[in-house]
Amino acid sequence: MTIPALNSTGVFYRRILSQFPQDISLAFAYGSGVFKQHGTNQGQMDKNMLDFVFAVDDPVTWHTMNLLQNRKHYSILKLLGPRTISSVQNEHGASVYYNTLVPVDGRIIKYGVISTESLIDDLMHWKTLYVAGRLHKPVKMLVENENGKLRAALVANLKSAVTASFLMLPESFTEEDLFLQIAGLSYAGDFRMVIGEDKSKVANIVKDHIQHFRILYSNILRDCPQVVYKPQQGKLEVDKSPEGQFIQLMALPRTLQQRITKLVDPPGKNRDVEEILLQVAQDPDCGAVVQQGISSIVKSSCITQSLKGIATAGLWKTGSYSSKKLMKMWKGWRRKPSVSQMS
């Protein structure tokens, strides 16, 4: 099964990709520079930074080639060579190496490089939820090679997002409720949502892109035995019995199960995961425990990745990027009264 995504082979994106080494297993573009968000016009969109993620099979070789083609993209770490850059990428933060505020073809872009192996690990197990969380939301898929393991992981990640969201929602809810929950998973516990991000970010992502979310999730919802999906009415009903919740908890990614276990199991008791999840399934606060588990994953990966970003971007670019984020947050805050008056 190929992941349902917004495929774009437009000349604009091909021109950007042509400026990088071509050994890429997956490439996608995301964010407010790619998708129009609520309250922005095309002129504002064209000024927004374009965000990309490139998955590569061999980071050392890829960075070697990219340093030859695009040396100026890198911070002072370029002096340490491709092996050190790859080591920084793989061993710290969320296993992504970002070059930011890069001018390409008249636009400013940011691109993250992750190994295909690390990406599959995050998609399957939610080790950091950093790139996996971005892929819960609509993206422009630019390159997707014939790696069956990667394709299966992309679909598994979407199924996990649905399962986790079911556990945090009531018995009956709307499609929009579900998509808001899914879109918010990777922001739970993200300190940047307190300082540096527009607070209405999640609502903005979903508001104008319901149809894009349907493209991603409709087949999964139709095939899921634990939900009654009424696409014509945009409504869903999920099994909230302890048995139903236990099945959902057992289907969660491994890292999230481990975080839930750590939250619930007293130190020294060392019960097995199945026994603990059976207890959580019967808890009226089951959804809140799942939410805490997700927050703990996101919090640790965001902090370490942001600290790594200072080294990979350099101090000047970090300061410039942060000030732009704060400005977006301020503009979002100023827009809020007018939005509430309209609703």
From TrEMBL:
Q: Which organism is it from?
A: Cottoperca gobio
Q: What class of enzyme is it?
A: transferase
Name the predominant localization. Answer: mitochondrion
Per its record, how is this protein called by name?
A: Phosphatidate cytidylyltransferase, mitochondrial
EC number in record: 2.7.7.41
- An example Gene Ontology biological process: CDP-diacylglycerol biosynthetic process
Q: Does the keyword Lipid metabolism apply?
A: yes
Q: Which InterPro entries match?
A: Tam41
Describe the family membership recorded for this protein in Swiss-Prot or TrEMBL.
Belongs to the TAM41 family.
Q: In which pathway does it act?
A: Phospholipid metabolism; CDP-diacylglycerol biosynthesis; CDP-diacylglycerol from sn-glycerol 3-phosphate: step 3/3; Lipid metabolism
Needs which cofactor? Mg(2+)
Compartments reported by the entry = Mitochondrion inner membrane
Its membrane topology is listed as: Peripheral membrane protein
Determine if Transferase is one of this entry's keywords: yes
